[in-house]
Design brief:
- The complex is a heterotrimer.
- By secondary structure, chain A is an all-alpha fold.
- Helix content of chain A is about 75%, strand content about 0%.
- Chain A has twelve helices and no strands.
- The longest helix of chain B has 26 residues.
- Helices cover about 50% and strands about 15% of the residues of chain B.
- In chain B, strands 1, 2, 3, 4, 5, 9 and 10 form a seven-stranded mixed beta sheet that branches. Chain B has a three-stranded antiparallel beta sheet with strand order 7-6-8, sandwiched between helices.
- By secondary structure, chain B is of the alpha/beta class.
- Chain C is about 65% helix and about 0% strand.
- Chain C contains 15 helices and two strands.
- Classes of the chains: A mainly alpha, B alpha/beta, C mainly alpha.
- Chains in contact: A-B, A-C, B-C.
- At the B-C interface, α4, α5 and α18 of B face α9 and α14 of C.
């Protein structure tokens, strides 16, 4: 028997189906370049540069990725990238969360100027900024070191982290803080118990941004380093770009390999956050 | 025997320690090697094995000098050099393009090499005359290898199409017309015009030399807007408008051009001798060859180069100079020429190419010698980067018909002239 | 006394269910505001005020304490470099000797028509990129937020859709240049399949090149918006949507009346940051067209790159950088002021 509710459900289902379909088609179109990049990392480049272009490889060879994975220099690059990104993440997230909370919850005199001021390092083209950063790194003795890279990268990522976290916290009404405080919490406790859990989904996005930003950053990485002891994957990638010829297979293989940890971390983080939230929801 | 008093023993100990501290550093200094840093981009270009052998050869012959190689990706070279020059890090030797020299010289970073040449006559005589790159009369860099530009073709594709390599400019046009196949989206060659230096060398400069023109006259004035220059640019405009080259030239860069030829998507190219060894990195089986030397009004060719410079702030200039002498020594020059398919900038290297069977290298002596008076070299100018960039617009506007040829060249020559005058 | 329990109802339930909009909730329904149909009332339903509230708590000391570590860090790591660049723009250097030239570089740059061409290109590039990234990112965020989407599918989609962001710009630009190539996929579809007479020079035609780069930039950066907005969407209480539905609002009106206001502060933050970073973006231009064809894709950042590094004129590049800084400071202030709600600062 066709009832009003079952007709409504059918309509809803139909609505869902075409939305799912739409999303899938859009996703497929967007992923075409990604498919090409992965395809170019498992077959010789001359098979990629053909006309007509052929997406599906005739022969799949893992040699390009294997060459990178077995190369101790690249293993070192990989380790350095992880240290750099984690270091920048911890530093930016901690300082940025505190500052974001301060800017969000307090009307500070000079706050607007400070907020605009911290963005100033992003408002200059990085190609000119590398000159003073190069000198600064030498002067403080952090040239060609991972801590030096972490410090430099954080200078560019922390302002963004602060702004984004402030944006998230602004969307969490202050009445909640106040309510908790009236209830007897100190400010820090209200921050920990009330605001922070609500901010977690937003923080995931900020964390992803910082991690990926530090992971793929190449200008500072090339200019502030000289030896594999501090060079990261992006330097390895940049060295595949020669004056006359670029090593496509190396570039695509390295990029594919370098993206795997990022996606894995991101998916894991998402699942962990969602789990945490649904667990708390059943009350 | 009475024991010596302990104070005496302590005194002796102190003297010994003191002596040890003073002598040891001296001994160290005598024994430990001087370190020179060479910043360059050529490890990937020449192959790590070639490169390591090069360094090892020097260090074996000079055990008191250690060469530390700082390999930087080419796209970031000029930025890092600038940062080093402004920030005080010294790279004793560095690879350098002519267009970077003026900027580095302004920062006081580059050593004047003329005094060194005066002191070492043998070295100076060994060097090709065109290998000294001068800014305002001072030699600031030596070319490491010279690059001529000539028509090269894919041997197999030409054989399959029944085509013979063109021996002059008219045959060149014929061959390109035969290679164009609209139905199959096929083109004979591509012209990357996104880079002004490219347009200046492979296309305009090449034809300019063959028309008997030159960039600068004897007094250093910009004269490429002469009738020969106009003829050269008009030739290219007519060629471009035949629609025989891959579309999108104005946005195409040299790496893409190399990918076209190496993947077989085009069958011909005008470029330097390295084009074959580079193409082999994409298709190891590809066979490229130069066409025999051409002759229009003259048999001249255009030459350019990449080179090395020495830092004015280096603490180890003598050691750095020793390395330069090694780098340009006949054995090394001839070996490197063979290894990387580029003529090293010395007489010995150029002579070694006589009788070569390499399909790219064997015609180079012809390019160099068939009409020596008509050979021109791309000049190193103040503000080279700006002027080259300006020429990109000049060339693009002229071949697309947006600006008349004479007017475009006059504007470019005026800009060059004002930059030259300002720097005097 | 009667007010207090009602004021707690929402906050308590917030605290008990940190997942915000996700998860089931117990507790009394929100007291309804009288059924007025003005847009924005759904957000006013109940004691929970609109997000982005203007009330800021006094207590400067505590505030400064929270903010101090970050400010101190940036003072130590950013002030010197920024000041150096600004100072370099006021000087010139010959043979290693620096001397003060005042506004000479600034005058030269501001008189240069190529600079203003770059400003124009950059404005178009930035505005179009940000709008498109926002639209695509928000669209996907809304789609992936729907709870009826099976969770496994949703996670897979999220993982897949962030891939453009995750790949390095160099590799992505290289691949896109191949796709745009006369021998590439798009032209194969045009010439080979649709029988166009000639391949389209996406990156070689002055009319198309900037748009082509905008497409690549959008493709590369929309996941940032998607991820950020997904996080913000999760904090919107379903009750607000329910209230709006009761009020008779359709899906678009619910979007405008509930979603957008809740996302407001996050959108302002992301878009401001994105505007600034996109304005200074140089990697794609450098890799895809080097400012060409002609100067059709030369952005301000590329102009600086060309002046400072390719032309060897470091000081003039520094002056241009400072001009860009000033433009962005003024532009950001104007942008934020335009977004401010009446009587309330938006930042």
């Amino acid at each position: 028997m066709v009832t009003a509710s079952s007709r409504g459900r059918a309509r809803a289902l139909g609505h869902h189906v075409w939305l799912v379909g739409l999303t899938s088609v859009a996703a497929a179109v967007i992923l075409v370049p990604v498919a090409w990049m992965v395809s170019a990392s498992v077959r010789p480049i001359r098979e990629v540069l053909t006309y007509p272009p052929v997406l599906v490889p005739k022969t799949v060879s893992g040699e390009y990725m294997a060459r990178i994975l077995h190369d101790p220099t690249y293993q070192r690059f990989f380790a350095n990238s992880i240290v750099l990104s984690l270091g920048a993440l911890v530093l930016s997230l901690t300082l940025g969360a505190l500052a974001g909370y301060g800017f969000s919850r307090f009307r500070l005199p000079g706050g607007q100027a400070m907020l605009l001021g911290i963005l100033s390092v992003l408002m200059l083209p990085r190609v000119t900024l590398i000159v003073p950063y190069f000198r600064l790194a030498h002067v403080v003795g952090l040239y060609d070191t991972l801590p030096g890279l972490i410090v430099a990268n954080t200078a560019f990522l922390l302002p963004i982290a602060t702004w984004l976290i402030k944006g998230y916290l602004d969307s969490i009404p202050q009445e909640l803080d106040e309510a908790a405080m009236v209830d007897g919490c100190t400010r820090v406790q209200s921050l920990r118990k009330v605001v922070a859990p609500l901010a977690v989904p937003g923080l995931v996005g900020v964390a992803a941004f910082i991690f990926i930003g530090a992971w793929n950053e190449y200008l500072l990485a090339v200019v502030l380093t000289e030896t594999p002891r501090s060079q990261t994957l992006t330097v390895g990638l940049a060295s595949f770009f020669g004056q006359y010829v670029r090593d496509w297979n190396g570039i695509m293989a390295l990029s594919t390999l370098a993206s795997v940890p990022l996606v894995a971390i991101f998916v894991f983080l998402q699942r962990w956050v969602v789990q945490g939230m649904s667990a708390g929801a059943v009350k | 025997m009475r024991a010596r008093p302990s104070s005496c023993r302590i005194a002796v100990l102190c003297v010994v320690v003191l002596l040890a501290f003073t002598i040891a550093p001296l001994a160290n200094a005598a024994g430990s090697p001087v370190e020179i840093k060479w910043m360059e981009w050529w490890v990937h270009e020449w192959g790590p094995d070639n490169f390591n052998n090069l360094i090892a050869g020097f260090e074996k012959a000079n055990p008191d000098i250690k060469v530390t190689v700082v390999d930087t990706p080419y796209p970031q070279m000029s930025g890092k050099l600038d940062a080093a020059a402004a920030g005080g890090e010294t790279y004793d030797l560095f690879g350098v393009e002519g267009s970077w020299l003026p900027g580095l010289d302004k920062l006081g970073y580059v050593e004047d090499l003329d005094p060194w040449l005066a002191k070492h006559k043998d070295f100076a005589d060994n060097l090709l005359p065109t290998a000294r790159r001068k800014i305002n009369g001072r030699t600031l860099s030596f070319c490491l290898y010279m690059i001529p530009y000539q028509f090269a073709y894919n041997v197999d594709q030409f054989a399959a199409a029944g085509l013979r390599p063109p021996t002059n400019w008219d045959e060149f046009i014929q061959v390109e017309k035969k290679l164009r196949n609209p139905g199959a989206n096929k083109y004979g060659m591509s012209m990357p015009l996104a880079d002004g230096g490219f347009a200046l060398t492979r296309y305009f400069g090449f034809r300019l030399a063959q028309e008997g023109g030159q960039f600068l006259d004897a007094s250093g004035r910009a004269v490429f807007n002469s009738p020969q220059g106009v003829a050269a640019l008009t030739w290219w405009k007519n060629f471009y408008q035949m629609g025989l080259v891959v579309p999108g030239s104005f946005g195409e860069d040299q790496a893409r051009m190399l990918e076209y030829i190496a993947s077989g998507q085009v069958a011909s190219i005008i470029d330097g001798p390295f084009i074959w060894s580079k193409s082999k990195q994409i298709d190891p089986k590809i066979k490229l060859a130069y066409a025999p030397a051409w002759h229009a009004k003259t048999g001249g060719y255009l030459w350019s180069c990449s080179g090395v410079g020495m830092s004015a702030k280096s603490q180890n200039k003598d050691a750095a100079w020793k390395f330069l002498e090694y780098l340009y020594s006949p054995t090394v020059a001839v070996n490197m020429t063979k290894a990387i398919s580029l003529p090293w900038a010395t007489h010995a290297a150029m002579t070694s190419l006589n009788g070569s069977t390499d399909p790219m290298l064997r015609y180079i002596p012809q390019f160099a010698n068939q009409d020596t008076a008509a050979n021109i070299v791309l000049p190193a100018l103040p503000d080279t980067g700006t002027l080259f960039d300006l020429f990109k617009t000049t060339f693009q506007n002229a071949v697309s018909g947006k600006t008349p040829v004479k007017e475009a060249l006059d504007q470019a020559a005026a800009a060059w002239q004002s930059a030259i005058a300002k720097s005097k | 006394m009667r007010d207090r329990p009602r004021r707690y109802a929402a906050p308590e339930r917030w605290a008990a269910s940190p997942g915000g909009a996700l998860g089931r909730r117990a507790g009394p329904p929100l007291p309804e505001a009288p059924g007025s149909r003005r847009a924005g009332t759904a957000a006013d339903a109940g004691p929970r005020p609109a997000a982005g509230t203007a009330r800021r708590l006094p207590g400067y000391v505590a505030g400064y304490l929270f903010v101090a570590p970050a400010i101190l860090y940036l003072v130590l790591t950013a002030v010197y470099p920024v000041a150096t660049v600004v100072a370099m723009g006021l000087q010139d250097v010959t043979a290693g000797r620096w001397h003060f030239v005042g506004a000479a570089h600034y005058a030269a740059v501001l008189r240069d028509p190529i600079f203003w061409n770059a400003v124009w290109n950059t404005s178009i590039f930035t505005a179009a990129s940000v709008v498109l990234q926002l639209a695509v990112g928000l669209g996907f965020a809304l789609l992936l937020h729907e709870t009826w989407f099976h969770r496994g599918v949703r996670n897979t989609m999220r993982g897949a859709l962030i891939l453009p962001w995750v790949f390095s710009t160099a590799a992505a630009a290289l691949m896109w240049s191949l796709l745009y190539d006369p021998y590439g996929l798009f032209n194969y579809l045009a010439v080979g399949v649709l029988h166009w007479p000639q391949p389209i020079a996406w990156l070689g035609d002055a009319r198309l090149a900037l748009g082509a780069i905008i497409v690549v930039n959008t493709w590369k950066s929309y996941p940032f918006y998607m991820v950020a907005l997904l996080g913000a969407l999760q904090n919107i209480l379903p009750e607000l949507y329910d209230a709006a539905k009761v009020d008779g609002a359709g899906p678009w009106q619910r979007f405008v009346a509930v979603t957008l206001p809740q996302l407001r502060t996050v959108l302002v933050a992301i878009s401001t940051v994105d505007l600034i970073t996109t304005f200074g973006h140089v990697d794609l231009v450098n890799m895809l067209t080097q400012g060409g064809p002609g100067r059709a894709t030369e952005t301000v950042a590329f102009y600086v790159y060309r002046t400072a590094l390719l032309d060897g004129n470091l000081t003039r590049g520094a002056a241009t950088s400072t001009i860009m800084l000033v433009l962005l400071v003024l532009g950001t202030q104007a942008y934020l002021r335009a977004l401010a709600r009446r009587g309330e600062p938006s930042w």
